[in-house]
Write a structure and sequence with these properties.
CRISPR-associated protein Cas6 C-terminal domain-containing protein; disordered C terminus; Alpha-Beta Plaits; 5-stranded antiparallel sheet; 2 domains; alpha+beta; 17 strands; 21% helix
């Protein structure tokens, strides 16, 4: 089966307000979302549903959004008239509803008609994205283990109507899969069921907070670095890593159109934890500096060995 691929559009918008905007305690991603929705409406693309794009919060124009090692601080309080700000919008589209290309064209066209901001730059680029294999079987390969640090901006998940305001590996995998399914028309639910048990939270350094969204609604969120521990067959390990990398592009969790669920960075980190005794004998850890080299965590007599 050919590897599935999709085209994702990334639009970086630099603007300055024509008059100062009091955010009144609201999350600045609400303003990013307003700019996008208003521009799309001006171009005739009236939305009765979302989920096929995301935005970031608003930042100072000097901030870089390309895989920062530390989370940049979103703007809060006031957007001052004449100051330069930026945000990013990412479109993946919705099969059978709206093509990403058409939405981006509508956005760029409509930005010039807004009467409350002057758009200084709207730079669009495409990314050719290789998607995971949608239907696989776990063939019982030797197990491997590793850890990844994921840097989350303010995030919450939805689960049967409830808000989940803490890191949830199962929700993370499910939300990425939902977005790539929407973009490709491929059902990724079978893969989700295989990958979700592979991932656990190893270290949670996030902060809990509440942010204000539209109409004064406050939602609980988490924000900061999380180390996720992966233990599974080597093939599933690679697919789990691929899904984590896709989270940087697609974001995770609820309200992506309001700047929620941004993932700034994903990186391999040395393992902090010993594996359970039941899996020590045949489990290998993929160390970040050694590429494809597998480091064996213990053997029957407790010695550590390395294989290449």
């Amino acid at each position: 089966m050919a590897v599935p691929r999709i085209t994702v559009y990334v639009v970086d918008v630099v603007f300055r307000p024509l008059r100062s905007v009091q955010l009144r305690g609201a999350w600045s991603g609400v303003f990013s979302g307003k700019v996008v929705y208003d521009a799309l409406s001006l171009s005739g693309l009236v939305l009765d549903r979302g989920g096929f794009f995301r935005v970031t919060p608003v930042y100072r124009a000097s901030v870089s959004l390309d895989a920062p090692s530390n989370a940049p601080a979103p703007v809060a309080g006031t957007l001052f008239s004449g100051e330069r700000y930026r945000f990013r919008a990412v479109f993946w589209g919705w099969t059978g509803f709206v093509e990403a290309r058409d939405a981006v064209n509508a956005l760029v066209s409509g930005l010039g008609g807004l009467d409350y901001v002057e758009v200084l730059e709207a730079r669009a680029r495409t990314i050719d994205v290789e998607l995971p294999e949608p239907h696989i079987e776990n063939h019982g390969e030797r197990p491997v283990a590793g850890e990844f640090e994921v840097l989350h901006e303010a995030t919450f998940y939805r689960f049967h109507g409830a808000l989940v305001s803490y890191p949830s590996p199962w929700r993370l995998i499910a939300s990425v899969a939902r977005r790539i399914s929407m973009a490709s028309g491929i059902d990724y639910r079978p893969l989700v069921r295989l990958l979700q048990p592979c991932l656990e939270v190893a270290v949670d350094k996030t902060k809990r907070m509440r942010i204000k969204l539209t109409h004064g609604e406050e939602v609980p969120v988490f924000k900061g670095p999380v180390v996720y521990h992966v233990v599974c067959s080597e093939h599933l390990y690679r697919l789990t890593q691929q899904m984590l990398e896709l989270a940087k592009l697609f974001g995770v969790g609820g309200s992506p159109g309001l700047g929620i669920g941004v993932v700034y960075n994903v990186r391999k980190v040395p393992s902090r934890h010993k594996l359970p005794p039941g899996v020590l004998k045949d489990t290998y850890a993929l160390e970040p500096e050694e590429g494809e080299k597998l480091v064996k965590h213990g053997s029957a007599n407790g010695d550590d060995t390395k294989e290449t």
